[in-house]
Amino acid sequence: MDKHELLRQISDLAGRNLLTEEEVLGAVRRRAAKGPRGLEHVKLTEVLYYLGGFIIILGIVILLGQNWELLNSFTRILVTLGSGVAAYIVGILFQQKDYSQKLTIPFFFLSAVILPIGLFVTFNEAGIQTDDAGINTVISGILLATFLASYFLLKRTIFLLFSIIFGTWLFFAFTSFLFGGNPALGWRFYAYRVLATGLTFILLGHSFRTMKRESALTGLLFGFGIFGFLGAALALGGWTPEQSMIWELVFPGIVFAVIFLSIPLKSKSFLIIGALYLMAYIIKITSEYFSQSFGWPLSLVILGFLLIGIGFLSFHLNRKYLST
After folding, report:
1. Residues in Cβ contact with 215 at an 8 Å cutoff, skipping those fewer than 6 apart
2. Distance between CA 201 and CA 260 in Å, rounded?
3. Which pLDDT tens digit goes with each residue over 92-127?
4. Domain segments of the chain: what residues?
5. N-to-C CA span, the chain
6. Which residues touch 187 (CB under 8 Å, ≥6 apart)?
7. For position 202, what pLDDT does the model report?
8. Which residues of the chain, if any, have pLDDT below 50?
9. Largest Cα–Cα distance of the chain, in whole Å?
10. Distance CA 183, CA 118 (A)
11. What is each CA distance from 167 to 141, 142, 146, 150, 223, in whole angstroms?
12. pLDDT value, residue 265
């Protein structure tokens, strides 16, 4: 409901003596006493769950580091892959009871962190080179299939998050397996992959906006997506004398599109990151082309005015369209 409509209804109720000033002020004070929305749900026990999970991971890493040479192959696999599988099973067991469902996320998180280590250890103990792009494709594919199936079966957002992470890993590993050995591709091959990944994150974040559980990932995907997308686009512009004029000409249009998309999407990530990249682009172009012709001091003056203008535009858009 629009704020002005809500105030009009409050005024109408007060005019009919159905609502008093004390009741309105009391409701406002109770809301303020609770603090920012969402903070009342953050409990000490949940913090301890995640802290405990982090300590478990740290303990496993230290155990392996101190005793790696003393462990045989079976023990190494048991400590790593076995621990990841055990954490996953414990999470499923806690999933069965309503009172213990909050414990599932730390254990599923543990499994998502430890299982990749366990698979690397297992392949390594089998005598397979784990730094090979093909093996990385197999490992990331196994993890993606496991967590994507878990998401559809158990309907937990954490599985979707790690499915996106492992899917990104699979994309980079598989494309490296197919084309990584081609020296003609160079660094631009990696930049284009980051560009594609960033765009995918943005589209996923947009598709999750209207979903009940998945909408929690929208802000995260928007932030990482737009950061990677604009970073790759800026890098593809290159630097004189090997710059790409196409990307240098297209980039400001992309950035302005991102900034103005922040309004319909109600995304501060689009606005803030877009403004920062626009500043970076202006600094790059100024130092690349104009520092010698106008002189560096005059270039800095022009740059300063441009950055002030971008800052004012960002502030104006945020206050008018994004601030609640």
Report:
1. 208, 209
2. 18
3. 888 877 666 677 888 898 899 999 999 999 999 888
4. 1-41, 183-324
5. 12
6. none
7. 94
8. 33, 35-42
9. 82
10. 32
11. 8, 10, 11, 14, 18
12. 80
Q: Give the model confidence (pLDDT) of 193-235 as tens digits.
A: 999 999 999 999 999 988 888 888 999 999 999 999 999 999 9
- How confident is the model at residue 147, as a pLDDT? 95
Contact 91, 108 (CB under 8 A): yes
Q: Note the pLDDT of residue 284.
A: 84
Q: Are 274 and 259 in contact (CB under 8 A)?
A: yes
Tokens in use for 165?
Answer: 């992470």
Print burial letters for 85-101: b (CB count within 10 Å at least 16), e (below 16): eebbebbbebbeeeeee
Sign of the C-alpha dihedral, residues 223, 228, 233, 234?
Answer: positive
Please say whether the beta carbons of 57 and 114 come within 8 A.
yes
